[in-house]
Specification:
This protein is of the alpha+beta class. It has helices spanning 16-27, 37-43, 59-65, 114-117, 121-124, 150-156, 165-171, 174-186, 192-201, 210-221, 226-235, 239-242, 244-251, 257-274, 281-302, 307-323, 330-345, 353-357, 363-375, 381-392, 395-401, 412-420, and strands at 32-35, 52-55, 69-72, 78-83, 86-92, 135-138, 144-146, 158-159, 189-190. It is 52% helix and 8% strand. The strands form 2 sheets. Strands 3-4-5-2-1-6-7 form a 7-stranded mixed beta sheet. Bound molecules: adenosine-5'-triphosphate and magnesium ion. Residues 36-37, 49-50, 52 line the site of magnesium ion.
Amino acid sequence: MYQRSEHSISRTQISDNALKVLYRLKKEGFDAYLVGGCVRDLLLGREPKDFDVVTNADPEEIRKIFRNCRLIGRRFRLAHVHFGREVIEVATFRGEGAEQNDKQVLNKEGRLLRDNVYGTIEEDVWRRDFTVNALYYNIKDYSVADYVGGMEDHKAGTLRLIGDPETRFREDPVRMLRAVRFAAKLGFNLHPDCKKAIHTTAALLESIPSARLYDEVLKLFLAGNALQTFEMLRQYGLFQVLFPATEKSLTFEEEGFPKLFLIKALQNSDNRIAEGKTVTAYFLLAAFMWEPVQMLAKELLKQGGDEYMAYQDAANEAISRQIRVTAMPRHITTAMREVWSLQPKFIARMGSKPSRLITHPRFRAGYDFLLLRAVTGGADPELAKWWGKYQEANENEQRKMTQPPRKAQGGKSVRRRNPRGNVKDSGTGKEV
Ligand code: ATP
Ligand code: MG
């Protein structure tokens, strides 16, 4: 137990709504703690993403206390207490067997019976993943309860699993991704036993449902440490499970191009987050899958056929393989395709095409993608520069920029029609 004077957490760091929930539970005679990532982050002086509360009140009791409360979850009921946009999650201590289906007992309404599932704080500790995620900030006396040496690990910057690492990874392989995510986010090191276990259990990640893996991928790559996360995932053999085709393309890379391209994409994304700009999942995912699509398209082209169709087929195939691992929703894969299909369209600089292309809803993303390709040797830097200039130019200048050189004007109408006939419905975002 760390008394109030022995740790650095102050109530001014805690959201008012979380404090309201904690005090209210206390007033009603229950125990109430902050737990998990928020305590870990508060100790680092970071602003937590959200505040999680645990208590010995059961969900029904919690519901009676808070008007603005909704119970969620089937397997394990949790309360969400709503304050406008902020939601404070309030969970009841979990007891042993809370995670194992066969030990769960349901009542007539399907609610889990508390005896077998709800527990005490001493039991709740053991189901948590890392020691630094198992610190409990007690609202009663502002102390921090530590049952597993989490404070020491926190000071040392170590991510250590509670219990036997291999067993814990087998129980839930997503914990391996969480290890990497926290290491990158907090600048912590993985405990050697944890590292060792990842190498033996990495492949188990394949058994995780694709929807959950997609959620984890977003957390991994949109948190501002994407580049380091990528390097670590590769180092531990986890990246190849998440993005098998991308990993393969990195192995076959020519003079480091695919890797450079990806690294630039990840770096860019991290920089944008650092500058407070938005980043989109589809852009990064389009970057991850770009090289696999190129490789597939080249294979298809070898078998003969039309270049445009080869790329469409390659995009379809690459996406359908990837969604089996990480279930990217349709609006994301559509946007990825749009970014890709804009790339060849940037080549046409003359005539009316540029003025139409620039109004495409994904133009900006497509252009950013082109820039990335240009700085990593995948596209003509001159082309990227031209499009940069074109966007800045006023209408008059734009017209001048797209005027065909004089000598070409004679054959204009003849040259136009033929090869472009099919471009019309090559449009954007069409699922093929
Ligand atoms: P973040 O900053 O991403 O919110 P977090 O540690 O709060 O990090 P959450 O996913 O919000 O992560 O989970 C809250 C807490 O629940 C964790 O700190 C941990 O104690 C526990 N937990 C979450 N997921 C797992 C898991 N897969 N296995 C064991 N414990 C988990
Ligand atoms: Mg959290």
